[in-house]
Amino acid sequence: MGKTFLNILSGTLPTVIISSVIAVTLRVVYLLKYRKKFHFFQELLSLSFIVYIICLFYAVTFQDIDGTFGTANFTPFQEMFRYTFGSRLFIKNVLGNMLMFVPYGFFTSYFLKEKNIFVNLFLTLVLSLTIEFTQSQIGRVFDVDDVILNLVGGLIGYVLYRIFAYLGTLFTKKKGEE
After folding, report:
1. Most buried pick, 125, 156, 157, 159, via CB within 10 A?
2. According to the 3-state scheme, what is the secondary structure of 95-150?
3. pTM
């Protein structure tokens, strides 16, 4: 999993650097021009989301393309149970598809401040279906298991956001009481 992540990062590094410089300079100018307050954590999360999107785009469009248009999988759990638990392919395909969407669930929840889990699941579903459709057009295969695993990842991201938000309110209350 680490090697795959490093491959994605090295494949996207020029795009990440250029996009980050553009985003940071535009944001700094905006904050200065309109005399807005700088919130380091919020700015860091926004930049992290941009980097995440670039890496996600690379992972789903430039990885494992063989140019053959195989048969789509519309049978739930067919592909994910094909792998031996803990094997390299299990980690790459099952855990990879879940972990790839954890940041998406977290970021969408953070930016929308959404407490309704169904909004998060809907947004994750829309993105996942869009990715699977796009992959089916570029030499990869539509796989309903990927959609299921992406939804689980988005759900985990949502839960992590809710935990951090709750802890943040506890910290803020405690700090305000002093």
Report:
1. 157
2. HHHHHCCHHHHHHHHHHHCCCCHHHHHHHHHHHHHHHHHHHHHCCCCCEHHHHHHH
3. 0.85
